[in-house]
Amino acid sequence: MQVPIKRAIERVPGGMMVVPLLIGALIATFFPGTPKFFGSFTGALFSGALTILAVFYVCMGASIDFRATPYIVKKGGTLLFTKVGIAVVLGVVAGQFLGEGPVSFGIFAGISTLAIVAAMNDTNGGLYMALMGQYGRPRDVGAYTIMSLESGPFFTMLTLGVAGLSAFPWQVMMGAILPLVVGMIIGNLDREMREFLSKAVPVMIPFFAFALGANLDLSKVWTAGLLGLAMGVGVVVITGIPLFFADRLTGGTGVAGVAAASTAGNAAAVPAIVASANPAYAEAATHATVLVAACVVVTAILCPIATAWTYKKFGRPADPDATGEAPAAAEPVASPIQAQPGR
């Protein structure tokens, strides 16, 4: 008898990230002594998030091809710097009012500069590519090879430094991006290694998500729900509008820009990494992880809706690589978030 576990998880927006994270959080909340009780490899699953993420970023880097076409570089680079630029602006503004710590009371309790920047910085790649496969052009799908440079904590650390908050030593900054760079070098030197390593990317997502969740106490973060919903809506609106115009400036109709207005599942791991590099963010990291995870779910639902509306309103630009005319309308897609729920 077969039990459709994977399909059930993927029905949840961002399920491969959110479901294991929730399971880990439930164990940490109701059975906090579990890792110490079992110890050994079982205990390591609860505490190995950073190690798993280091390997994850090597494999992610291997999937990035240096030989991207000029259009892909232009499109992907424009969307990348627009998204990161928005995070920098918001980080600078929030940093003036919030500093490194989270808001400690009121309806905004738990929100921090770290949470805002981490949620805004990174695009859900699987969602973007699925939406572009439906509403865009093949070259628009390929633009994510450039946008995937957002992955990891590097841009978040850089943004926090630009915002005038606690900075990071250059060694830490280099260490944050080095696994990704090493993976890129390996993948571009050997295509077989690229294929081999890139297959591990989706496999590792539930494991580091579980380890992250194992460090969350739900009794302390139950208020994050409504705030997380508001932040998720904010990601789609605040990043979606500038990305729409950025896409149009590069010859698109705005569809690709709106499809990039989401939060990657991997972004939920960034607060913990940042806090491990600089203890000044330790208090903010716990709340930020939950808020960013909420943004993953909310944007995974809203972004496809906004993209479909943009396509219906503005259409798809003619594809010079196609032999015939582009179809007038796209067939409905059942669940674009199922392609790679974690990113």
UniProtKB/TrEMBL annotation:
Residues 320-336 have a biased composition (Low complexity). InterPro entries: 2keto-3dGluconate_permease. Its main location: membrane. The keyword Transmembrane applies. It is a multi-pass membrane protein. It catalyses: 2-dehydro-3-deoxy-D-gluconate(in) + H(+)(in) = 2-dehydro-3-deoxy-D-gluconate(out) + H(+)(out). Pfam families: KdgT. It is found in: Cell membrane. Residues 318-343 are annotated as: Disordered. Keywords: Cell membrane, Membrane, Sugar transport, Symport, Transmembrane, Transmembrane helix, Transport. The chain crosses the membrane at residues 12-31, 37-59, 80-97, 103-120, 141-162, 168-189, 196-216, 222-245, 257-277, 289-311. One of its GO terms (cellular component) is plasma membrane. One of its GO terms (molecular function) is 2-keto-3-deoxygluconate:proton symporter activity. Belongs to the KdgT transporter family. Catalyzes the proton-dependent uptake of 2-keto-3-deoxygluconate (KDG) into the cell. This is 2-keto-3-deoxygluconate permease.
